[in-house]
Specification:
Chains A, B: Its main location: membrane. Chains A, B: This is Magnesium transporter MgtE. Chains A, B: Homodimer. The structure is a homodimer. The longest helix of chain A has 31 residues. In chain A, helix 15 links the parallel strand 4 and strand 5. Chain A is built from 22 helices and six strands. Chain A is elongated and about 90 Å long.
């Protein structure tokens, strides 16, 4: 695994120096430690210790560490800091991190802090907080390098050297018009590998790929993946450049969106909080509505069974295979639905492809169904030693159920998407419940055809 | 959505110019189009058209476009290119892209191409192909900037200007000893913002986080996410720097790993190929083994039902609720298993936390079970109008089943992980099958207690 002489050892060393009260050596070691690991260290400490360590950090590291801390850890630190100290820290944060921190704080304190900020910052903060949650506007930062087309490589390098320190990235610089429209972009790579007197105008790539402030973060992540960029510019409604999103903020989104889909597929209400941090009550709250809904829906199977009670009583052997049949239908259905849901999430399949997908799934269902039906027939007849006609009913039912389950399992997620719902709600549990009822009807209908008069 | 005056329009424009046979304008427009979109364009063309367009590209774009093409498109192009042309193209590819291309080609052709390559390249290719699939060694590229500690900022910039063109990234440069050990890394950011006579030795960060050639790509992705890097160095067994992995290759892995888990959760064998590109036969092949295994396992329920046949025949009303009960158990179990599987995949939960997780899930199960049991009792008694004792049996059974399902659903994925299997195989379908059998036993046992003598 990754190491720098092992991340774990580093933490042990830091704890040791803190316990032994050796601030100079601790400060030295902190300087050589990645801020991500410092965050891990601080989160293991008491409020007092955390404050001691935090004050030993050099300014840049302190800012980066603070930005990465969990909300409750931020609060812990903030309680110990002077208000002036805290305000300075806030001002040094990147704009997006400052907003995150403000959002987590009590409203009264935010008001107090903003009151003493300059007018420009206040306006910007308010604008920011107006962007929809999970939008590009909320993700972006406002610290980026702006160049002008008439600059030379030498001018650009001098400008970057001057303003570079406060910028989130220097590696993609945007070239703007006097009215802030994007004219193009130029990479630091092409700046440093070209002659000093080359014009930025000649180096810049004009066809900029950008996102809008109101675009959903999932679409933003997709644009990053498609083009492999490390940064994307964000424009407002009037197409003026207002911010920048960097790839490190995006990697979490790809993972978070997948986690949300996993939660929906498991028939629970999605929740951004980590599983390990949630209480049983909060977990139960997200699960009960779905379990209840599915249980009530499943009682439909009771009605069907009641209607066919005379069939079960006539041939009691048929009853034995009910759970196996409904399970197989459910499994075949969830294979189809989960794969289609994932294919839509990664934009491999779109709802307009529905005819193609359903035909494909029915074909798959037919192949799977034949294989399963044959084995089920042989197993029932030779192993369970039921009558030939019962074995035949079970085998035939499997074929029909699997085909039906694949069709339903692929169709419903696409229908949900088309109707503007999240397709992931059409996952295994709901598909199983629907397929169960269909399976029972198919089973008893086939039984009545093969054994007439029951 | 993202645009550069809309990606779709650009494609339409390119098609138009190609159809109207206006190579000069086409070539102009291609120069202003992102290679990712050129790939999309070429993949819509016939072999002859693709070759025409490909030859219109400027060299850098041609190399980038070729690297991004699907294997079958590469083959199409390659068939039209002269062998000399193709060899030149191969040599211009980044090393990791060259390897990808060679891997997709028939062995005989690879041999022929390698025969005419220099000895060094041949050795490198063979070494590369020896790394395990999905390892850091396979992902890395060998084109990175190496600096020496005694260089000044001015020297470094001159060196970067000289070699920069062939490098995958210039933004992280590695400082190495004469024996190729990593001494530290320095960002281009810190090079361009510091004075010309500063020593690289004073700028470099010494505690380098790196991965080994044999590390799994999933671990590599996790390191990228944890530290937010855009590049990570790769070292060999003797800790010498041998390559570099960039973040754009990693974003796909995060997504691909999630997709594999979705496939396992759906009880199908994982497959890297996109759903839309797979044939029904290939899909069926990955699904049948699991469906068959689950169907055979589910026949265990038949045995249980057979054993309790006398109970069913004594109180036929009990039979009606079997599918509803097994479904509810399955759903409760898959909620637990899917959430635990995901939490382990994102390293939020580790197998060593199993006691904590199981206790949490049992508590959740108890809360959910009570809510569901109460509703089930009321529904059976007032709505289905069954006898009070039958309603009581159903309600009580639900409570027990949900608790049991949560325990099994959380425990089994962690046990699988502990035993070295992928926890995702312990997903909904398998959990449902196990919980089904347990549910039936619980149901009929409670029935025998509440209605003695059946």
């Amino acid at each position: 695994m990754y190491t720098y002489k092992s991340s774990e050892n580093r933490l042990t060393e830091l704890h040791y120096l803190l316990d032994k009260k050796r601030p100079n050596e601790l400060s030295q070691l902190l300087r050589r430690t990645n801020p991500v690991d410092i965050v891990e260290f601080i989160e293991e400490l008491s409020a007092e210790e955390a404050l001691v360590v935090f004050r030993l950090l050099k300014k840049d590291d302190a800012v980066e560490v603070f930005a990465e801390l969990e909300p409750e850890e931020k609060e812990k630190l903030q309680a110990g800091l002077q208000e002036r100290e805290f305000k300075e820290l806030l001002e040094d944060l990147n704009f997006d991190d400052m907003i995150d921190t403000l959002e987590e704080m009590p409203a009264a304190m935010v008001q107090r802090i903003l009151k003493s900020s300059d007018k420009e910052t206040r306006a910007l903060v308010n604008e920011y907080l107006n962007f929809p949650e999970d939008s590009a506007g909320r993700l972006m930062t406002t610290e980026f390098v702006e160049l002008k087309p008439y600059m030379t490589v030498k001018d650009a390098l001098a400008h970057i050297k001057k303003v570079g320190h406060d910028m989130v990235t220097l590696y993609t610089c945007y070239v703007t018009s006097p009215t802030k429209e994007i004219l193009g972009y130029v990479s630091l790579r092409s700046i440093v590998t070209n002659k000093p007197d080359t014009l930025i105008d000649d180096l810049m790539f004009q066809d900029v790929i950008y996102v809008h402030t109101i675009d959903d973060q999932e679409d933003v992540a997709r644009t990053f993946q498609k083009y492999g960029f490390t940064a994307l510019p964000v424009v407002d409604k009037t197409d003026r450049l207002v911010g920048l999103i960097t790839v490190d903020d995006i990697m979490w989104i790809i993972e978070q969106e997948a986690t949300e889909d996993f939660q929906r597929i498991a028939a629970t209400t999605p929740d951004e909080e980590d599983y390990s941090k949630r209480t049983p009550l909060s977990l139960a709250k997200n699960r009960i509505p779905w379990l209840m809904f599915l249980m009530i829906s499943a009682t439909f199977t009771s009605t069907i069974l009641k209607n066919y009670q005379h069939v079960v009583q006539a041939v009691i052997a048929l009853n034995m295979f009910v759970p196996m049949l409904t399970d197989s239908g459910g499994n075949a259905g969830s294979q189809a639905s989960t794969l289609v849901i994932r294919a839509m999430a990664t934009h491999d399949v779109e709802p307009r492809d529905w005819v193609k997908v359903v035909i494909k799934e029915i074909t798959v269902g037919f192949i799977c169904g034949l294989a399963l039906g044959l084995v089920a027939f042989l197993k029932c007849y030779f192993f369970d030693k039921v009558a030939m006609n019962v074995a035949l009913i079970v085998g035939l039912t499997i074929v029909f159920i699997v085909v039906l389950a694949k069709a339903v399992g692929s169709l419903l997620p696409m229908a949900a998407q088309k109707l503007g719902f999240d397709p992931a709600i059409m996952a295994s549990p709901l598909i199983s419940t629907i397929v169960d009822s269909l399976s029972l009807i198919v089973y008893f209908t086939i039984a009545q055809i093969i054994i007439p008069g029951i």
